[in-house]
Amino acid sequence: MPLTPTHNYFLQGDHVWVDPQTGSEFNVEIGARVVATQTGQIILTDDNEQELKFPIQTKFRLMHITSIEGVDDMILLGDLKESAILHNLHMRYKQNHIYTYTGSILVAVNPYKLLNIYNIENIRQYSNKKIGELPPHIFSIGDNAYWSMQRYQHDQCIIISGESGSGKTESTKLILQFLAATSGQHSWIEQQILDANPILEAFGNAKTVRNDNSSRFGKYIDIHFDKRGTIEGAKIEQYLLEKSRIVSQARDERNYHVFYCLLSGMSKEEKKSLDLTAASDYVYLNQLDGTIYCDSRDDAKEWSIIKSACKVLMFSDEELHDIFRLLAAILHLGNLKFEATTTQNMDTCVVSNTNILRIISRLLKLDEHGLSEGLSKRTLLAHGEAVITPLTQEQAFDIRDAFVKGIYGKMFIWIVDKINSTIYKPKEAAAYRKR
């Protein structure tokens, strides 16, 4: 493809490419429009509505007509390069067109606001349509995968990838919503699959500086269909849960949603039974650089949604109570303090707030003395004999944090397994899968 020639004579309204300015975030050309030509200089307005002035003899490359008008499918761009792709996405984004094709690939730009393009009418509109028949939409990707599965009788796979905050979690939910609606008559298993999302988000998502609902784990979802194309089950695999977040968070970030929902949504009586108070009282939730607030979330309301979803996924009252006990124990463990001491010329430590230790041992159903010993001493086996070594204060804090991460990690795995035990019903008659 020949490059568009450069010129140094332009008319008002011409669209051109401008070299990146010093200090710009991206080292790519930016689109601009000629506003005026005056004696000795040319005045432009760039894509960000910033005014730029250049000497009249400056040479610019004219923009191809496809970049000026914008395209639904970026394969059609006349000057297919990074700057043209970014310009096209930017122009469409400003018009609330957040979806753009690149062949069979869909590029989605997170609008960070609600758009009325995901209702049942939109689902019907995109059902049984080829990619390109209608404006770009995530429902088109779901529909293409579904009908390819039906037509070719092969498993289909949809890969959703992107930066943190790009909308992967929401895109996954929208794909599931579309498949549940388009695969036949509504069934209980479809509702259970959809209700797995708020549970997984509560335990696996958190506020970060870039995203108020950032997934801190990876997931792989198998959706099983019968020969008629009706959803009959699903299986979720989780991996790489960010366990370090449980004990420490970066500036302006939060711990996992479930802790704040628990403390905001529980009744006074429920919190009293677990010796819980406010989020600001717990070290794991109220650290120096972190925050307990998230303006875009209603933690109390989310708590009701989580509990309702757990009922749909067949969590028993006893199982829910056990989860609440573990969450409360984690919060109390974060407040456990160790006092440095010296024993036989060795640096040792002891638990200084035994009242907190008593609460933790009750919640974990562990012997109080055994728990204290386990957190302040290390036991090694040497030649078949147990050698007990006291820990320093710093080591005890590290052991406590490792213990907490282990509890939460195992609990998360159990929750995913519990969800799978409800929604995963393998049958010999199973026909296809959508991954």
Provide a quick synopsis of the model.
This protein is 39% helix and 20% strand.
Give an overview in words:
This protein has helices at residues 65-69, 82-94, 120-126, 138-152, 168-182, 188-204, 257-265, 268-273, 299-312, 317-334, 354-364, 368-376, 393-423, and strands at residues 6-7, 15-18, 30-38, 41-46, 51-55, 60-62, 99-102, 105-108, 205-206, 214-215, 218-225, 231-239, 338-343, 346-351, 377-382, 385-390, 432-434. It is of the alpha+beta class and 435 residues long. It has 3 domains: 1-95, SH3 type barrels (Roll), CATH 2.30.30.30; 96-199 and 216-244, 3-Layer(aba) Sandwich (Kinesin), CATH 3.40.850.10; 334-423, Up-down Bundle (Four Helix Bundle (Hemerythrin (Met), subunit A)), CATH 1.20.120. A hairpin with a 2-residue loop joins strand 7 and strand 8. Helix 4 (138-152) crosses helix 5, helix 5 runs antiparallel to helix 6 (188-204) and helix 6 (188-204) crosses helix 9. It starts with 5 loop residues before the first strand and ends with a strand.
